[in-house]
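During the no-cost extension, the postdoctoral fellow (Dr. R.K.) reprocessed legacy sequence entries with the updated structure-token encoder. One reprocessed record is reproduced below for audit purposes.
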Amino acid sequence: MEKAYINLGIFCVIGALAPILPAFATNDLGGQVAQASTLMAQSDTIYHTKVYSFSENLVAQKAPITSVSQLSDVQPSDWAFQALRTLVERYSCLAGYSDNLFRGDRVLNRYEFAASLDTCLKRVNKQIATAKAELFPEEDLATLQKLQEDFADELTVLGNRVDALEVATAELKADQFSTTTKLNGEVIFALSTASRNNKAIPSNVSTSSVSDVDSNLSFSQRAILNLETSFTGQDALIVSVYGNNFPDFLDVTGSKMARLVYEQDTGGSTENDFGLFYLSYQFPIGERLNVLVEPYGGVLSDFVDTINPFLGSAGDGSISAFSNRNPIYWQSSFGAGVGVTYNFSNTASLSLGYLATEASNPNSGLTGGSYGAIAQLTLRPVEAINLGLTYVRSFNGFSNVGVGSIYANDPFDGADNIANSYGFEASFQISPQMAVGGWVGYVQTEAISGANEGANATILNYAITLAFPDLFQEGNLAGIVLGIPPKVTSNEINLREDKDTSLHLEAFYRFQLTKNIGITPGILVITNPEHNKANNTIYIGTLRTTFSF
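Re-encoded structure tokens follow.
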């Protein structure tokens, strides 16, 4: 005789119930269902809150009116109860006590019974799927079919309720992010000193104005605290405050070429200044576009990748301001503005940004004072190579550069100027323990006011960098930099042209004592300071300790 088979599709209706029904710990059908009842009651709370009430659910489904017989409880003496009990004991479709005895002897309502039936049906269904159907007696298959028919309405309602709960759970997961603020910071202690020679002077300046370097060993600090807040999990509001008492090495040596990366231009003051350092809000638009708004403390390099991965950190990278990044990025620094980055793919992106240094001043605003606009195409043809093509348009942007010769920072003796700057940056990680990089920066500038209006000048700088990550110990970093700080190579104001060439030589080694503490001794050598061979070589030594948290 042909075997009777269960329509396996019926079991799929109730398969979704598993997330709210834990594996039963006993063979006590009543106890198991009591647990299911409790879970159902708990699920009602979520269900009422996120979807609609149980009665509304029935109306929405236009369910037929249930007969009085279907409202009665299932007694242990009922056929359905006994049939399920037999199936449980025969196929172990409900987990039981350690002695494998089934001890269901409680009166159940129809939904409690349906919950247990659902679990048993799923287990039997899996057994049928992994075994031959003829191993299951025909009468057992018929019993399962009859139970499904008798409790079809309850099983359907349970399935619908589980579907609704899954929707509600998905909504809760999507909305579960809460606004949080994280604190991180960086503290730098540094011992620094400069060689005791004459202060550097620019070309074409009388040596009679030379004064001696008066430098002793200084102990200074800088502390930055960042408050990072996210409202959606993808955006970031950053508020940074800082305290600083680093002296300006321009006053000590006579040249901005000796400037350390972590010093703040305080005009030689060693008073601790504490206040707002940086303010920004970053958020994505779609999957490829990111927007960065900077109301305070922004620099053009915030909008782009400076392509200096190992040396570009003030706390953990190089020790000098020049070797930190291509100096054209320093134009119009510490301003307010906005930038965007569009990622074409994982290998190419375009960044645009604009900063105004006097944005809060109603007399100059965003366009009437010093400003800088940047565009950069960043390429990553392979994982080990990063390239940057940079263009900067600025108005009176050199006063904030802070590196290079005095003439490079002010080529027209205070006259307003417009500049077009072009940069090429590259980094090539030859191996996990060695990377080579560098940049070239070329500037064409023109005076647009004063007696020198219409005068033109060109400024050049370049550098080659070597980085040796994990040298001698994991986390350590050695770095070497060789370059020429910004130099006025030609100027129609002849007296403000750099006649000779300085070389920037730098070496440092960071000992990473712990994940949060690093100590970096370093030395900086400037030959022919101010691109003037009449000046003595400048030597700067520093011992930097960085705490990050």
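The chain is about 20% helix and 35% strand. The domain at 180-209+221-548 is CATH 2.40.160.10 (Porin). The remaining legacy entries will be reprocessed before the final report is submitted.
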